[in-house]
Amino acid sequence: MTEEFAIGYIIPDRMKELGYGKNYLTPKRRHFSLYAGEVRTIDAYNEYFFLIDADIEISIHSEFGSYNLNDDTINEQQYEHQGKLILTNSSINLKHIKFIQVIPTHL
Q1: 3-state secondary structure the chain
Q2: pLDDT at site 26
């Protein structure tokens, strides 16, 4: 998914679907670098992380589901995450992952 597509279509439609309408902070780009074998936890309980791009050895687990292209037991890869995100780099090299972070505002 490209940033432009996510910001222009996916995020506005999803926020409307969730009942926030246009009540959310302007999407913020997040680009994480994970060292070899690193596991990083991100607390995102009041926000949404939309996956834009990830190296093949990166996996993501959250309350919304999992994203791991190397796991053939996952029948649907999740690109939207919330809650406790667990990012794992199963490679022996530095890897990257890009998200768009959206924070709903409660007016």
Answers
A1: CCHHHHHHHHHHHHHHHCCCCCCECCCEEEEEEECCCCEEEEEEEEEEEEEEEECCCEEEEECCEEECCCCCCCCCCCCEEEEEEEEEECCCCCEEEEEEEECECCC
A2: 79
Q: Would you say residue 86 has pLDDT above 90?
A: yes
- The Cα 45–Cα 33 span in angstroms is 21
Locate 17 and state its tokens: 């679907």
pTM: 0.91
Residue 107: band (very low, low, confident or very high) from pLDDT cuts 50, 70, 90: low
* Predicted pLDDT at 27: 84
48 exposure class (CB count in 10 Å sphere: 0-12, 13-18, 19+): buried
End-to-end CA distance of the chain: 30
